[in-house]
Amino acid sequence: MKTQAWGWLAAAVVAAALNASYHDGGLRWAHAIADRLCHSTTAVLGMASGEASQFLTEAQMITPRPQAPSCPWTATIARAQAMKARSDSSVARVEEFSAREQARWAHFEAQQARMEARRAQMESRLAELRIPEVALTRVVIPTPKVSVCPRVRVDMPRMPEIKIPAMPSVHIDISDETSI
Length: 180
Description:
By secondary structure, this protein is mostly helical. The protein is built from four helices and no strands. The chain starts with a helix and ends in a 52-residue tail after the last helix.
């Protein structure tokens, strides 16, 4: 049992070290896998939701592994173009999100305007409503003062006593065994 606990502890320490290294910018290969996975899943979600433009944008981001170019300048240009394409797709996603939020906000404002119109309509109907004035006079009802509370006596007959005879006890002797 102790060996298994030490094994789990060692696995946790290794996982924490890898996580820290990944988030500090190390493990470029893990970042590359995560980026490709992100674009792949976004492309699939775009295809599933019926948004062809999102699918096309993300599908263009998924490229085969780049071949080692013979010229470092060409590699730098290719990386810059890939970064620009990723930022363009990110900007497109932000703009799409912004458009959806603006549509939601417009729907909310329209709903608020409808409620305000209903409130104004109810206020106008209330203003047209005429309630006649009624003169009320105060009515005083004298209550008699009772200083003594009358007592009421009730006689309850007692229940007759019921005597139940005791049950006779029956004893059966089974000690004598008879053969059949």
